[in-house]
Specification:
By secondary structure, chain A is an alpha+beta fold. Chain A has nine helices and 26 strands. In chain A, the strands form four sheets. In chain A, strands 14, 15, 16, 17, 18, 19, 20 and 21 form an eight-stranded antiparallel beta sheet that branches. In chain A, strands 1-6-2-3-10-11 form a six-stranded mixed beta sheet. A six-stranded mixed beta sheet of chain A has the order 5-4-23-22-26-13. The longest helix of chain A is centred in the last third of the chain and has 17 residues. Chain B has 583 residues and is α/β, with parallel strands linked by helices. Chain B has 20 helices and 21 strands. Chain B has an eight-stranded mixed beta barrel with strand order 13-14-16-17-18-19-20-21, surrounded by four helices. In chain B, strands 2-1-5-4-3 form a five-stranded antiparallel beta sheet. In chain B, a hairpin with a 2-residue loop joins strand 9 and strand 10. In chain B, helix 1 runs antiparallel to helix 2 and helix 2 runs antiparallel to helix 4. In chain B, 42% of the residues are buried. Classes of the chains: A alpha+beta (385), B alpha/beta (583). At the A-B interface, helix 4 and strand 14 of A face helix 1 and helix 2 of B.
């Protein structure tokens, strides 16, 4: 039997029926090694998992999470379920789950990475599914890196709840939990490829983060960060009175942190007029070189294509088998009506190679360097046949 | 160096310094250096070994030089850069692209910052340890300055407050009967009681006054007044407060307090507390619940006592005690019935002198004065020996010495009896009866030849205990005599129940050379009482022929006194016994 990769998708409202529809399409009666279930919040997940299990058989790993949208079988949806499965020879999967991770994300990352032990294949990757509401995800990645080290790529994303920021869920086999980090160690005897791209470009001169702490930027180039942002974007102070209007404006101009491989994007979520700071809710280290970023629909769509192309390129000439996609929920919002163009460009790059995944609350990807937390980015993991 | 690099260095320094120890600081330094320089691998090497490794397992780095070639699967050969610092080498390995000049500069700066931070931490650690030690010391001092049981200041803190106070009075409080509570209800109850007493003391004094626990069951209060009458008023209040029952171990406990007061301008804090202590001692001596204000002459007495105490401790081992014997004479026949052993202390003369040659009880006056010794009256040292418990040892020595002596005399005078004085402490000593038994066995004295003399006040202090202890003694066959009878307050009902054989009528009743009618009436009554209870009667202090005759007429069995025979050293006794003394 050959190695295989399949995806299915359903927007039916009954959890079991939707799961049956998506799982049947993804699995097609083949025995999977692992089945990924990504669904919007609101489904009765145990019923859904039972239905998936009925297709997957008792031995397969069933893993997944709640989302801010899902991707499968050439579709994306806000409400629905996407099932992605893979199996066949030369593949192995092990998992580990760290519970009650809030406040100890670094340890949680290391615990999630423990599943790497026992994966012997030449090509390995650690997939991480985190809870998008547990704080500084950067620490989760640091913890995972402390175990995985430089030679094992990290990919994945954090569970969402349709950007309501109330509660997210992670699934592993029959358990449905919150506040966890799940590690999925993937071993393959053929290459794996990772893609990281966002489609944002630098806008104006570089700035230095002269004062920042815990995801809050106080000063850029020695000046209050909010003042710099308003001036650079030509925005009026009055905009700060309207949180939503500010967020919408700032959304289109995230910070880009200088990297050799490009820029790591940090979304500006809010401003604090008291201390003139900007809230990024992710690490923006003091001393970092940063730019205000800009983009447009074409560039964002192009970013998706770029991410896929990178992943395929990394397969060393091997034929792609399928692709896991972790696309930022903020990209989904920003693309809005142009989402289908994103799906189209992915399809265009991949041809008839199947792909599935979800819209994430923070993306994880590391191939080079030691850092791996991303925002406003599309991360892809390609498997080869 | 770039402007942004300095900010990165600041961040780096802050992150490293925030760690609690060297290991954590080194780890975070390696991590941050790796991240900032966008490297995959970082490490700190010290003394040729891998201290910390990031992005790679330490064993892959060990054994490599400071500029190793690192070839990682899937990544290829890393470009390694390193920078030395005081204690080692900071190293990063980066894929694809070697560090540029600015990045190498930054790495060098980070290494130096790490070295600085580690030095800092070493200092900080030492400082923290010292600070912790200082805190512990302060705690222990605080501990010593506050009594953990009552929360009151200790003597140390009390003296400090006293020094600061200027004009002040000190009350020195000693609890009466505390030991009894401790002994009968246990130490925990004793501790509870001390806590309750402390609270009562607090409730009796003003906010500005300072209470303290000086030790054991001793408390003190510093009053912000130098007026004796005010201090006495507070002391009375305290005594009343302590006299009220305390609820301890589920029962009401009654204790009391004796208080000494010292007020004083010009006295040092230590002197003031010491004076109050001296006054308290006097108060204690005067009886429970007394208040005594210190007067300078008390100090000399106290000093004398202190010296006496030390000397007394050594007197026994130095053999400074002697026994004299005073015969008990049958008033009817004038013959010797027995002898009473009387203790004498021949104290070598040095230092102070204590009422030498003073009249001893039992009508004894030292004879054969041989210089240079002071003859210390039993009246001066026996009470102290009682207090310190030394009386047990002294009493045992008396018992054995007199027993040996009497046994020797009895070879010539087989009917000779021996009277030995026994103190209250001895009577309640659980080993006393065994001591007597051993002495009898060793000397071969028949039990009925020995009589233990106990004062009326000892027996009546706690008649129930006395009855129990005397019972044991009597079961040996030893006789019991009530000494100084008539001076205490014997209850006739107890007298009836006390297992005694002899009443020694106090000399006070024949104080006049020619006894008065009233005196004679009392003696007659006692003699008749003795006869009714079948007790032998002895009259003490017979100093004239008139007295002897009168006593004989009254029917008193035995007499003692200068007129009959003075106390004598043992070597003189046989001669005295074989010549008729009086007829």
């Amino acid at each position: 039997m050959e190695r295989w990769f399949g995806t299915g998708h359903s927007t039916l409202t009954d959890p079991a029926t939707a799961a049956h529809e998506a799982a049947a399409a993804a699995i097609e009666g083949r025995p999977p090694v692992v089945v990924f279930v990504f669904c919007s919040v609101g489904y009765h997940v145990p019923e859904m998992l039972a239905a998936v299990r009925s297709h997957a058989g008792p031995d397969a790993v069933v893993v997944g999470c709640s989302t801010s949208g899902q991707i499968g079988a050439g579709f994306q949806s806000g409400d629905g379920v996407a099932v992605t499965a893979l199996g066949g020879p030369g593949l192995s999967v092990r998992t580990s789950m760290s519970r009650n991770v809030t406040g100890r994300l670094r340890d949680a990352g290391a615990e999630a990475a423990a599943c790497l032990a026992g994966i012997e294949q030449e090509h390995r990757a650690l997939l991480i599914i985190g809870d998008g509401l547990t704080g500084d995800q950067h620490e989760l990645v640091r913890g995972a890196y402390s175990v995985a080290g430089a030679t094992i790529p990290l990919v994945g994303g954090c569970a969402g709840d349709h950007l309501t920021y109330v509660r997210t869920y992670q699934f592993l086999d029959d358990e449905v939990l919150s506040d966890t980090a799940i590690g999925i160690a993937l071993g393959s005897d053929t290459p794996l490829g990772v893609g990281i791209a966002h489609g944002w470009r630098k806008e104006g001169a570089a700035m230095i983060v002269t004062r920042s702490q815990d995801g809050r930027v106080y000063e850029l180039d020695g000046e209050p960060a909010l003042d710099v942002l308003l001036r650079r974007l030509g925005l009026d102070e009055a905009l700060c009175d309207d949180e939503e209007a500010f967020r919408d404006a700032a959304f289109l101009h995230p910070l880009g942190l200088s990297r050799r491989s490009g820029e790591d994007i940090r979304v500006i979520h809010a401003a604090d007029r008291n201390d003139r700071s900007l809230l990024c809710l992710a690490d923006v280290p003091q001393g970092a070189l940063a730019w205000l970023m800009e983009s447009d629909t074409d560039a964002l769509v192009e970013g998706a294509g770029e991410s896929c192309a990178q992943a395929l390129d990394a397969l060393g000439g091997r034929e792609p088998l399928g692709m896991l996609v972790f696309d930022c929920a903020a990209r989904r919002i920003t693309l809005g009506d142009a989402l289908d163009r994103e799906i189209a460009v992915i399809g265009k790059v991949l041809g008839d190679v199947p792909y599935g995944g979800f819209y994430t609350n923070g993306e994880i990807a590391r191939v080079r360097g030691a850092l791996g937390m991303h925002h406003f980015t599309m991360v892809t993991l390609a498997l080869s046949s | 160096m770039n402007h942004w690099s300095t900010h990165q260095l600041t961040e780096f320094f802050a992150a490293v310094c925030a760690r609690p120890d060297e290991a954590a600081a080194t780890s975070v330094a390696v991590e941050r250096a790796t991240e900032v320089l966008e490297a995959e691998v970082g490490a700190v090497l010290r003394d040729g070994r891998v201290d910390v490794a990031w992005g790679i397992s330490a064993d892959k780095l060990s054994g490599l030089s400071e500029n190793p070639v690192l070839d990682l699967p899937g990544i290829g050969e890393l470009h390694v850069a390193s920078a030395r610092f005081g204690g080692g080498t900071l190293l990063v390995g980066r894929a694809d692209e070697a560090l540029g000049p600015e990045e190498r500069q930054l790495l060098q700066a980070m290494a130096q910052v790490l070295g600085l931070a580690l030095d800092n931490l070493t200092l900080l650690t030492a400082e923290r340890r010292q600070a912790a030690e200082r805190l512990a010391l302060l705690d222990s001092l605080r501990e010593a300055r506050h009594d953990s049981l009552t929360g009151l200041p200790t003597r140390v803190l009390f003296l400090e407050k006293l020094r600061e106070a200027g004009t002040a009075s000190v009350l020195f409080i000693d609890l009466d009967r505390f030991k009894a509570v401790n002994d009968s209800l246990g130490h925990r109850a004793g501790d509870d009681l001390l806590g309750l007493v402390a609270a009562r003391i607090r409730s009796c004094i003003d906010d500005g006054d300072v209470p303290a626990r000086i030790g054991g069951d001793e408390f003190a209060v510093l009053l912000r007044t130098s007026r004796g009458d005010e201090a006495v008023a507070v002391a009375r209040r305290l005594i009343d407060a302590v006299r009220r029952p305390f609820r301890v171990a589920g029962r009401d406990v009654f204790i009391g307090a004796s208080i000494g007061i010292a007020t004083g301008a010009g006295s040092s804090a230590d002197d003031l507390l010491g004076n109050a202590d001296v006054a308290m001692y006097r108060a204690k001596k005067d009886g429970p619940g007394k208040v005594v204000v210190f007067e300078p002459h008390m100090h000399a007495q106290a000093l004398a006592r202190l010296n006496l105490d030390g000397d007394l401790q050594r007197a026994l081992e130095l053999g400074q005690f002697r026994l004299q014997y005073q015969p008990l004479i049958r008033l009817g026949s004038g013959t010797t019935y027995g002898v009473e052993a009387l203790i004498r202390w021949h104290k070598p003369r040095h230092g102070y002198a204590l009422t030498p040659g003073s009249v001893a009880p039992h009508g004894a006056v030292p004879v054969d004065v041989a210089a240079p010794v002071d003859f210390v009256s039993p009246a001066d040292f026996v009470p102290m020996a009682e207090e310190t418990g030394l009386i047990i040892d002294i009493g045992r020595w008396v018992l054995n010495t007199a027993g040996d002596q009497a046994a020797r005399w009895r070879t010539a005078m087989p009917d000779l009896r021996l009277n030995v004085n026994v103190s209250g402490r001895q009577l309640t000593d659980p080993l006393f009866v065994a001591d007597v038994e051993r002495m009898l066995a060793r000397t071969g004295l028949p039990a009925e030849a020995v009589t233990c003399e106990l004062t009326e006040s000892v027996l009546m202090n706690d008649p129930a205990v006395a009855i129990a202890c005397l019972g044991e003694l009597r079961s040996l066959g030893v006789g019991v005599s009530i000494d100084d009878f008539g001076t205490g307050y014997s209850s006739l009902s107890y007298l009836r129940r006390l297992p005694v054989d002899e009443l020694k009528i106090d000399r006070a009743f024949i104080g006049e050379a020619v006894p008065s009618r009233e005196d004679l009436a009392v003696v007659r009554a006692v003699v008749e009482l003795g006869r009714t209870l079948k007790l032998r009667t002895v009259i003490e202090g017979v100093e004239t022929e008139e007295q002897r005759r009168a006593m004989r007429r009254l029917g008193c069995d035995l007499g003692q006194g200068y007129h009959l025979c003075r106390p004598a050293d043992p070597e003189r006794i046989p001669g005295l016994l074989f010549e008729p003394i009086a007829a």
